[in-house]
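Example 3.2
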Amino acid sequence: MCGERLGGDESFICAHCFVHLPFTHYHLVKQSQLEKQFWALFPIERATGMFYHDGKKTRNLIYQIKYDGHPEVGCHMAKIYAEELEKHHYFDDIDMLIPLPLHWKRLLKRHYNQCHYICQGIHEKTGIPVEEGVVKRIKNNTSQTHLNASQRMRNVEGIFQVTHPEKLKGKHVLLIDDVVTTGATLSSCAKELAKVPDVKVSILTLSVASRIAAPAFEDDNIDVSIFGVPLME
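Structure, written as tokens:
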């Protein structure tokens, strides 16, 4: 993130950059703003993201994971986040992890799906199985990057298809992405998954594109820290 050399006991991200990540703390919040954002699109069970995607350093971190050939950084960050979430029972009733799929043309160009590596990091900490073949991306839609909210919704209509409904019936799935902006792509995938009877869908991302006002915690006396880092003002 900062471009400085890592210390001997540091991996992928230095301690200074890590403790200054703008953590969301959504997993400590009842009915967080991120969950409400998704409820307007799809009735998810719960949603969380590790940090806000609102600065040059965090954007660089996601760029390294997504485009610059360093998906192992995503795996590393996911392990750390999963360890924290386990303390708060976030995964207690989750049956499987599903990485948001890429279209085969985009996968051929990028050579990897960064969401697979995020799933792998969570799997290594929790043991929850990763299911990559249960849903596929059937349309190679244009990038969402320069589209407004309404254009994003139209751009992702009908781009996913469930391929193995028998594996999903009655399951609570955790859908994984690297960044959530409007939630349009994740919601499109969730709606397709929900066509299977009795499926429940939750969301986890590494970063959240827009910073929302500081959350209200259920218990004013709660120890609002993550990874030993106090809640940022």
